[in-house]
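Q: what does this look like with PMV bound?
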Amino acid sequence: MPTPTLSTAKASAPAKIILFGEHAVVYGEPAIAVPFNTLSAIAEAVPADRGSGLTIHARDLGMRLQLGSGALIEELDHALIYAAKLALDHLNAPVPDLHIEVSATIPLASGFGSGAATAAALIRALSAALGQPLEGDELNALVYEVEKMHHGTPSGIDNTVIVKNSPIYFIRGQEPQPFSVGKPLTFVIANTGIAASTKETVGAVSELIERDPATYKTIVEQIGSLVREAKALIEHGDVQGIGQLMNLNQRYLHSLTVSSSLLDSLVQTAIDAGAIGAKLSGGGRGGNMIALADTANAEQVAVSLQNAGAARTWITTLGS
Ligand code: PMV
């Protein structure tokens, strides 16, 4: 393999939030997700000394990872090194002499897709530094492979919304559909400050379905129906209807045992503070909840959530 000419490159990828359909999406039902650009992962690649190989400095993890200039084998169990190796194999490129700094403002294991965002930013910077930038479906497929390391059986929603950086209506294995937003929607996002493993919550749902398919498969299908309805309501700008479907989705997620006492109480706090609807977002049992609010009331909802124990809150508008 010829040694490519290397250049400096900087790339990023946004966080994401799931509005409807988490967990059910793993079983082929639709889900709706949007990028959350307030939080992002950044990767900066700089050519390094000849023969030094590839160093990835994951600043937030306090880790320096190395992929040698010989065989592509070292530290493959780390997701970032695995991502780099996948990209190099895909490009049929030798290990370059590069230093890549990776950092993120996205809280880890919080339902914001930090794993997919970091992998996407890293592969973007690495491939651009090699002069063979990876984007679109190629990048998405590589990030999906990295996601498997985090999740076991990911639906692919995280990597798809993060790589596309646009709102998507997603069904596993199908081309994601864009959708329009009839009226701007203001969401308050609250992070519980509790890191939770999506692999574990996905595993818990799978056990429930195995144990009692009649009950839990039906819940999954009911979530699918409400997501189809939610897409139509978002397109028509029916804000009250969207809020009601969020509340219904939360009840189903609670039945699937992926809520938690803190998530339940934050959902209730948001409703008591005047939110139109609220639900957990992402894998659950920690991570995030989202509330739909009137623009005028969003700040009040956020303050109430902080007072009720949210570690951090953000306000974001979809379709503005
Ligand atoms: O990464 P999280 O916490 O947003 O969870 C991903 C959404 C799930 O539906 C729970 C899992 C999946 O692979 O779709």
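Residues 181-318 form a domain with the Alpha-Beta Plaits fold (CATH 3.30.70.890). The first helix runs from residue 79 to 91.
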